[in-house]
Write a structure and sequence with these properties.
It is built from ten helices and eight strands. By secondary structure, it is an alpha/beta fold. The protein has an eight-stranded parallel beta sheet, with helices on both faces. The longest helix is centred in the last third of the chain and has 23 residues. Strand 7, helix 9 and strand 8 form a beta-alpha-beta unit. The protein is about 35% helix and about 15% strand. The chain starts with about 35 loop residues before the first strand and ends with a helix. Bound molecules: manganese (II) ion (2 copies). One manganese (II) ion (MN) binds next to loops.
């Protein structure tokens, strides 16, 4: 036998073997000849409640080792459609300052964008979506599909306007997203003030509370989101707390009354064919997880997202 470097997992090796990369994609040796770069953002310095999302990328990598290559529902095989690579983790040097950490996230994502690579980031707390959007929305405001229990359009908390409850308010203010081409799906839970909900609605965002989601069903809500976005460049941000805590207990701010994993799959499969420019999946917090339920759900939904991005790459 010959020695094979461990940086290149073999898809047909036993799935419990090899390095745990995202979805068992090969580790990138460089940023050329890559269509989709899946990378970790192990940062949770902007949380307002339970910690632990910094451990999300590693555990999602671990659980995604269980996955195979073909999406049984859509027939999509993302690794056939695109050169998918695990491009590593954001290399932090300043995690004790939110704005420094955000600059490092933006710089790492921007390397991907400059190389023509579609980014799929695995967080991390939801604050990381702001620097990711700064990297992908350089040519003007993009459309946004945001799945979450929370609108994340609150303002400052404990002296920082970059906390994980605020990224989409900042993104609107910075002209990174077009509020009128933004849809927020799965919103619910108690709040002390209605400020975030009101900001979203007043700015023109379509806010789908979870009661409406359950009433209409995921396919109908996906169809509405597709119509709202149309042919605009669109970014997908997926907060794992959109799932009910039964399906995703390992997260910082769980809210009952949420989606099932199946509803989330139907929702995502209903978003095929859009002009995707990138995506993230955030807020998996392994220290609060039970039996890897949440990181497995995160891995499975990240695979659905990867299928969407791979179809977009193939259509170019
Ligand atoms: Mn969120
Ligand atoms: Mn949330």
């Amino acid at each position: 036998m010959t020695y094979r470097p461990p940086a290149t997992p073999d898809r047909f090796a036993p799935r419990f073997a090899e390095l745990a990369t995202f979805m068992r994609a090969p580790l990138a040796a460089a940023l050329d000849e890559v269509d989709i770069g899946i990378f970790g953002v192990p940062y949770d310095g902007a949380l307002t409640n339970r910690p632990g999302a910094r451990h999300g990328p590693r555990e999602v990598r671990n659980q995604s080792s269980l996955m195979r290559a073909i999406n049984h529902a859509t027939g999509v095989s993302p690794f056939e459609l695109a050169r998918v690579r695990d491009t590593g983790d954001v290399p932090f040097t300043g995690i004790f300052d939110i704005e420094t950490a955000h600059r490092e996230i933006e710089a790492f994502a921007a390397l991907h964008v400059a190389a023509g690579i579609m980014p799929l980031a695995i967080g991390g707390d939801h604050s990381v979506s702001l620097p990711l959007l700064r990297a992908v929305a350089r040519d003007g405001p993009v459309a946004l599909i945001h799945v979450d229990a929370h609108t994340d359009t609150w303002d400052s908390f404990q002296g920082s306007k970059f906390n994980h409850g605020a990224p989409f308010r900042r993104a609107a203010e910075e002209g990174l997203i077009d509020p009128e081409a933004t849809v927020q799906i799965g919103i619910r839970g108690t709040q002390n003030l209605p400020e975030g909900w009101e900001y979203s609605k007043a700015s023109g965002m379509r806010v789908v509370f979870c009661e409406e989601f359950h009433e209409a069903g995921p396919a109908a809500i996906a169809a509405e989101a597709r119509a709202l976005v149309g042919d605009r460049p669109v970014y997908l941000t997926y907060d794992i707390d959109s799932l009910d805590p039964v399906y995703a207990p390992g997260t910082g701010t769980p809210e009952i009354g949420g989606m099932t994993t199946y509803q989330a799959q139907v929702l995502l499969r209903g978003l095929r064919g859009l002009d995707w420019i990138g995506a993230d999946l955030v807020e998996v917090a392994p220290p609060f997880d039970n039996g890897y339920i949440t990181s497995l759900a995160g891995a499975g939904l990240a695979f659905e997202i990867l299928c969407l991005l791979a179809e977009r790459v193939a259509a170019r």
